[in-house]
Each structure stands twice: as C-alpha cells, then as structure tokens.
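Entry for the shared binder. Reason: the reviewer on the internal report wants the predicted structure included alongside the sequence.
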Amino acid sequence: MSDCNTRIIAPSVLASDWAQLKSEIERADAAGADWIHLDVMDGIFVENISFGPKFVGAVRPHTSLTLDVHLMITHPDNYIPQFVRAGADCITVHVEADHDVSATLKAIRDAGKKCGLAFNPATPFDAVVPYLKQIDLLLVMTVVPGFGGQSFMEEETMPKAQAAHAYREEHGLSYHIEVDGGIDHETVHIAGDNGANVMVAGTSLYGAEDMTRAITAMRG
C-alpha cells in the first residue's frame, strides 16, 4: 500500500455497470485509478444487498490494482477466509458490527492482508481509538452507509477525519484515512484538507463523461 500521505483515488464498483464488469474494471484502471473499492452489503447491517466473495473473485483477474473490500455486514468475522480467497488486498470491517473487533482485525492480518476499520457518521471517534494501533486504514463514512448518490456529510464527519489525522501523528502511526460517500471533484478537496488521503468515489467517477479527467481533478 502507498504512503499514508499520498492521495489515492478508489472508484467504487457499486456505481459501475455490472453487466460490463470486466470493461468497467479495466476502464477505471486505464483512467488512472489507484485502488478498486468494493462495497459488500448483507441487507442486515445496512438496508441494501450488493454482492459477496464470488463477485470480488470475478473482479480479481481483470486488474492488478489493490482491491479495497469494505464489509458492511453483521458478522464479518465469519467471512474473512472467503474474501481472502477471493483476492481482496485490504479488508475493512465496521466497529459497529457484531464481532470481536480486535480478533477480526488480527485474523485479517494473519491471513496476510491489510486490515481496515470503518465507522458510521453517528459513531464517535472514541469508538475506534482502541483499535488504531492494529489497522492499516481507517474509513470515515461520510454518508449513512447502504446506498450510493448521497450528499457528503461535512459537519458530522470532517471533525472525525481531523481527529484521526491528529491521533495518527501524535502516536507515530501510519494508517490511511479513507472517506466514502458523496465524494466528487469538490468534496474530495474538503476531505483532503481535513486529513483524508484515500478517496472512494462512485457516481462522480463511473458516471463521469471522462473518467481520466475526473480522476485527475480529484488528485488536485
């Protein structure tokens, strides 16, 4: 994974044309994406259902980019081996989910993968602090998770991105700070100014007339 101060652009497959999955992955790759972001939703933890390990496995042969897999599922610990086998490079779980967070993060790392921890807009930063020394990535959700196309929640979430950045610097840690939800050519710079470096974007990239130009604009 790149340095935690390098801006990383991660198109979200949720917003792509799944009927053209191979070409949509290759389009993001050719446009200059750094990672590919995959949102896994179980219909229980969030009120939407997306895809599972086999879908991630279908993406893997079509890119050498980092597959950034975000598990919005109730029992992520039960599925870590399946996503490891599917070819995930980084697996992110939610602090709010029903599992032993520390044990799940250890299982991901023991499998040789990068591990991430996510938290929702309503969850305080203090909830993730006990785990920050275990992770490679902290995902600050900038919308209520479950559906694409929502508006960026600046007031509720940017103070937490700032806190994550300050904690990282104060304690000599090196986790990435990722944002997901409502990220476009304007909000990406707000997030960056508040300490985030990994930018997940769905509609604003896959819906762009020119994805290469959209990614370039997001780099700033």
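Summary line for the report: The CA atoms of residues 140 and 179 lie 5 Å apart.
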